[in-house]
Amino acid sequence: MSTPSPAPKLKNRLLTAVGAAALVALVALSGITGRIDAAVYDMLARGAAPAADGRIVVVDIDQKSLAELGRWPWSRRTHAQLIDRLDQAQVKGVAFNVLLSEPALFDPEGDALLARALARNGRVVLPVLAEPVQMNGASVELMPIPEFAASAAALGHAEMMVDDDGVARSVFLRAGLGSPHWPALALSLFRLEAPARDNADLPGRRLVAGGEPPSPYQWVRDHQVLIPYPDPPNAFRHVSYTDVLNQRIPASMLRGHWVVVGMNAVGMGPEVKVPGHAASSTISGADYQAAMLNMLVKDASITPMPDGWLVLLSMLIVALPLVLCGVRGLHRIWRPVALMMVVAGVLSVMLLRFAHLWFTPVPAVIVLALGALLWLYRLLRRTQRQAQSDSLTGLANRSRFDTALDQELRAARRTGQPLSLLVLDIDHFKQLNDSQGHAAGDAALKALARVLRSRARRPRDLVARLGGDEFAVLLPETTAQAAATIATTIHVDLANIGARPHGISASAAPPFTTSIGIHTHLAGDDLGPEDVFDRADAALYRAKQAGRNRSFSHTGDQEPISASLTRG
Prior knowledge:
Layout: H1 7-30, H2 34-45, E1 56-61, H3 63-69, H4 76-88, E2 93-96, H5 108-121, E3 124-132, E4 139-142, H6 146-151, E5 154-157, E6 170-177, E7 182-183, H7 185-190, E8 219-226, E9 237-240, H8 241-245, E10 258-263, E11 271-273, E12 282-284, H9 285-297, E13 303-304, H10 307-324, H11 334-354, E14 357-358, H12 362-387, H13 398-415, E15 419-427, H14 429-436, H15 438-455, E16 462-467, E17 470-476, H16 480-497, E18 512-521, H17 529-546, E19 551-553, E20 561-567
Parallel strand pairs: 1-9, 1-10, 2-3, 2-10, 3-5, 13-14
Antiparallel strand pairs: 3-4, 6-7, 6-8, 11-12, 15-17, 15-18, 16-17, 18-20, 19-20
Helix pairs in contact: 1-10, 1-12, 4-5, 10-11, 10-12, 11-12, 14-15, 15-16
């Protein structure tokens, strides 16, 4: 016997791989798994976060400061005094995260004092924000007034990126109106110490490419990175604004440190949730900038994998099981699928921990899980079919026949349509097995099964092997005369096949005789499934007793029709 060609199997695997690759690309690019991606990242990111750097200090505008210095906003003279105190303490730099976009109308001298303090210090960066002029309209940049902008060491955007679930996971290291020309506030502070670099050297996922320039009224972002927050996220050293101002903090606690000044009083500034922590755990804008600075100092920024690479890697992961299932020990498809699901998770963790690259395994795992569920569904269906079918002939077995007979009998009572049942067996089957062996008997059974299947082709027709050499054909909506005609055609079909089925010796084979018993259930008959079968079986017995070639007997409308059909 020739070996079957592997081409169909390879073709099916190739088509499955293409379909899985297309599906994972659709899932990855559509963003429908965004919430799950975020939850997985939150769970994994905590283990990849660096500790809080001891050289970062947050100066809080807190409740204590408001109680001592009065209602907000304070005089610019007060801020000038704080900048001078920090200058005297010889800090590395100051991110003054307070928007100074309007002059003090009733205290111009306070503005002048603050501008001079900024210039004397020379290491203070001020924030820039974008604000829409109207709902869904163009934005404008809110910058420090010219005196402050000219005196500051640098400017930086202070945008806090918050996802749809209220969690601040990322930051854009460059952003601006019309083009991403402003570095982030913490980046501006960090660059006071580090040598300036080109934008191309910045980490993060690029969002601005060459081509048509964006609108000059659109806030443009670039170089997206994920912030690895320390645990806890507010683990940085915090001191009160008023304590620094009144020199209650030793200068040694501030010397050589980066300082972030910002609002931390309850209800006075924006607060955001952080990944991997309870919803009740929030941080202020100053802590957000401190975490970003900590990320830059420790070179621990996490870059989201570009969409193209994400799709390609996900495609590879979902296609590999179809290759691995040819390896010894992995031929059952669930094994390589489970293996690649584990590989996707491990790969995500490894890239996050060692390459600071975020690859979400969710799209690939979802497609692999769908594939596993589909395989399980097909396995269950195949198992169910095997449990209800005869392994030799592929026909329905006795269990499936009993169920179908009960169902069709109920349907016949509802509709008033006739239901015919043919019960058959091969005469002298034991002698055939004894003289020619089981292979010859099996060949005869298969030949009869093929003939029966060819004559019961309607969707509801059922051919079953009841056991041994006994078969049944269930024919819904079939009259007694039509059933007798089908029995006759079965006899003719068997005769046309040849004197003996394939595999039976011509010299030693006994006659191959098939007997058929028929019973037709009519409207008004209250017989149960067992009674219907018993009547057909009784008709078979009478047909075998008659032993005549193609004879029929009718004893009444409700009586079974019996026929003995002999082949040979």
